[in-house]
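Customer escalation, tier 2.

The customer says the design service returned an amino acid string that "doesn't look like it belongs to this structure." They asked us to rerun it and document both sides in this ticket. The original structure tokens are below, unchanged.
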């Protein structure tokens, strides 16, 4: 996902996981927002975070 634009840090400060309401971390390499608490990775497409649980990838331990 190297061609994805970086996410605005101000946006990252206000976004939370829709399931846990917990913080998210940005994984630039994979173009995802990570919710450690939920064990999910939300995709970012065309610079837009897709904050739907059904679109998220389950993180493997």
């Amino acid at each position: 996902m190297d061609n994805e634009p970086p996410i605005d840090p101000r946006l990252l400060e206000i976004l939370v996981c829709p399931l846990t309401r917990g913080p998210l971390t940005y994984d630039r390499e994979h173009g995802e927002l990570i919710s450690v608490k939920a064990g999910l990775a939300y995709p970012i497409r065309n610079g837009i975070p897709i904050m739907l649980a059904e679109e998220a990838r389950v993180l493997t331990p």
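Tier 2 assessment: The sequence is consistent with the input. Residues 9-58 form a domain with the N-terminal domain of TfIIb fold (CATH 2.20.25.10). Strands lie at 25-27, 32-35, 40-45, 48-49, 57-58. Sent an explanation to the customer and offered a walkthrough call.
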